[in-house]
Design goal:
The complex is a heterodimer.
Chain A lengths: L3 E5 L5 H12 L4 H14 L5 E5 L2 E11 L9 E9 L8 H15 L4 E3 L7 H9 L16
Parallel strand pairs in A: 4-5
Antiparallel strand pairs in A: 1-2, 2-3, 3-4
Chain B lengths: L3 H14 L3 H11 L39 H28 L6 H26 L11 H10 L17 H22 L5 H34 L6 H17 L8 H5 L7 H27 L5 H12 L42 H11 L2 H4 L2 H15 L4 H6 L4 E3 L12 E3 L14
Antiparallel strand pairs in B: 1-2
Helix pairs in contact in B: 1-4, 2-4, 3-4, 4-7, 6-7, 6-8, 7-10, 10-11, 12-14
The chains are: A alpha+beta, B mainly alpha.
Chain lengths: 146, 438
């Protein structure tokens, strides 16, 4: 089995990220990923990560450290987007990405990482739980707007 | 912060050379709403290894002052810093020329931010030059080095890539994608510098440089999509010609392909010139592959990802598929094409690696490959004249390589001081010493 290489994301990973997203969601959304990758590269290019196997990007995880949101003043590492090519799963790629992302957060001064998972995304919930995330003492609330 | 006199000198330079800087504050909250405000200041990383990481002195403590380096190493280092400073200030002067021609406000705001961050990088280099005693490496005083750097204009910078004028906003974007990419390589190589203050300067600059590359690649991605749909203003041939303008100059920024070992030996860089250049070429090829894939997806919107990938693979291999041929896609010129420095200087090699024997045929080929506005420049005329002279044997290769159509500042001072004299560089033209502006 080829070795997995985890490294910070860069602007040349956009097409690969689009490809992974398309494999997962069935949607081709280059503009969306260009905006997102540009955002994370601009703000913290060291934290967000991709996983390569044989020089091909097979997974990504994007996040950043922010503070002062929702009354939580402490610097918080937010895990915001991730995906692993379905053909490359069950090889520890998600864990490798998470470890690298969280290490980047810690280096940037965060002592806590947070994320949110939609209730219906059971697979994602299982994954983040396996990565050590536990229910936080905050509530996600919403109000539908007519 | 720099001592006030140097800080003010850079601010003054900025007023003359980067008049659009105040606009950055106006657009910041629109395009960079969550980001920390821009700061014109020097930054240093704290987690730099204390020991030299490569070369003859590997394992020994890194130098904290120039006098702790061997004199020759200090001279190499000083050359690196001065060249780096020249590129930072030079790129701002180039971007400023065509910044206002951006079609999209976001593209313009991104380049504006790139320029501001290049100004910070220049500030960082001035900090390195003025915060330590460089007398072991040069007789030139710090203030004179700073004045020399701040006096440079497009045409008198250290590296040729910073002496070319921008002709359209396409240059701003292609420059960011290709020339800033060389910058990334240089900064990455210098991250291990045996001079710790320089090594410490690299990580903050690299973090900013990452966005500069995105500011090149992402507009290109969007332009190729529009080009494929036929609803844009910038077509693939225009992008291809701009690549031909910049790629060779980018390669030459690495230095002669046969050199660079001395920097490795002194622990100042971790790659020699050819190895670094090889990696750069691979990365540029990958960039163009991605752009081509984006083009194919947009050209055949009803095809699946796998079908589009298959079409790209066939076209890249030389087939014509549904009217799409290799010539419709972007292609990296041969590394020997249109070269004026290094191992391949003035060899008559075409964009696809073909060899030319007749100089006029070769010049016609190069001209046909370059953007129209650039063809009309003094830079291209100077190259063509030099290429003819090299082939005719009336100019030797060494003189040809050293020859630049540049204007060099003879005396220091600022454009508003009305005391500036410009001369045609003696090495670059026959009118050496001509006084153009008293």
């Amino acid at each position: 089995m080829a070795a997995v290489r985890i490294r910070p994301v860069n602007e040349l990973d956009i097409e690969s990220i689009c490809r992974i997203d398309e494999r997962i969601t069935g949607k081709y959304r280059p503009d969306v990923w260009e905006d997102r990758v540009a955002y994370f590269i601009r703000r913290d290019p060291d934290s967000s990560q991709v996983a390569e196997v044989d020089g091909k990007v097979v997974g990504f995880m994007l996040g950043e450290v922010r503070g002062g949101e929702f009354g939580m003043e402490e610097p918080t590492g937010w895990l915001e987007f991730f995906g692993v090519d379905p053909s490359a799963r069950e090889r520890g790629i998600g864990r490798g990405l998470t470890d690298a992302l969280l290490a980047g957060f810690k280096k940037r001064g965060a002592h806590v990482a947070r994320t949110m998972v939609r209730t219906q995304d059971a697979d994602i919930a299982r994954f983040v739980a396996a990565m050590g995330f536990t229910p936080a003492p905050v509530s996600a609330l919403e109000k539908r707007l007519a | 912060m720099l001592p006030d006199r140097y800080h003010q000198a850079i601010e003054h330079w900025r007023q003359h050379n980067f008049p659009d800087f105040p606009k950055l504050a106006e657009v910041w909250t629109t395009f960079f709403p969550k980001d920390e405000p821009f700061c014109l200041c020097a930054k240093a990383a704290g987690d730099i290894p204390a020991e030299i990481e490569i070369g003859d002195d590997r394992g020994k403590p890194k130098a904290l002052q120039p006098k702790e380096l061997a004199p020759e190493a200090a001279q190499h280092l000083l050359s690196q810093i001065r060249a780096q400073a020249s590129t930072e200030f030079g790129s701002i002067q180039q971007h400023q020329m065509t910044l206002f021609r951006a079609q999209e406000p976001q593209d313009q705001a991104w380049v504006l931010r790139v320029m501001a961050e290049e100004l910070r990088h220049g500030y960082q280099m001035v900090h390195l030059l003025t915060s330590q005693d460089w007398s072991p490496a040069t007789d030139t005083k710090a203030e004179d080095m700073v004045e020399e750097i701040l006096s440079m204009q497009t045409g008198s910078h250290v590296l040729a890539a910073f002496n070319l004028e921008f002709d359209s906003f396409l240059d701003n974007v292609v420059f960011a994608a290709f020339i800033d990419r060389v910058g990334k390589y240089q900064l990455t190589m210098q991250k291990i510098s045996a001079y710790k203050p320089y090594a410490s300067s690299m990580p903050p600059m690299l973090r900013e440089e990452a966005f500069h590359l995105a500011a090149g690649v992402i507009p290109l991605r969007r332009w190729v999509e529009h080009a494929a749909r036929g609803d844009g203003y910038i077509d693939m041939p225009a992008i291809q010609k701009s690549i031909a303008k910049w790629f060779g100059r980018g390669l030459e920024m690495f230095g002669d392909e046969r050199g660079g070992e001395t920097n490795v030996k002194f622990g100042l860089k971790d790659l020699n010139n050819r190895d670094a250049q090889d990696q750069y070429i691979q990365e540029c090829a990958r960039m163009l592959d991605d752009l081509n894939v984006r083009y194919v997806r947009a050209r055949f919107p009803d095809r699946t990802r796998d079908e589009a990938d298959a079409i790209f693979a066939r076209v890249a291999a030389g087939e014509t598929v549904d009217g799409l041929s290799r010539d419709d896609l972007l292609r990296l010129p041969d590394r020997r094409f249109f070269r004026r420095r290094g191992e391949f200087a003035f060899q008559m090699i075409g964009t696809r690696g073909e060899t030319f024997t007749d100089v006029e045929t070769y010049i016609a080929h190069v001209l046909d490959s370059l953007p129209e506005a650039y063809r009309a420049s003094v830079d291209v005329k100077h190259w063509a004249d030099t290429q003819r002279a090299v082939v005719a044997g009336t100019k030797n290769l060494k003189d040809a390589v050293a020859s630049m159509p540049r204007l060099a500042r003879q005396a220091g001072g600022c454009p508003c001081g009305k005391s500036v004299r410009w001369v045609v560089d003696a090495a670059g033209g026959s009118a050496g010493g001509e006084r153009l502006k008293p």
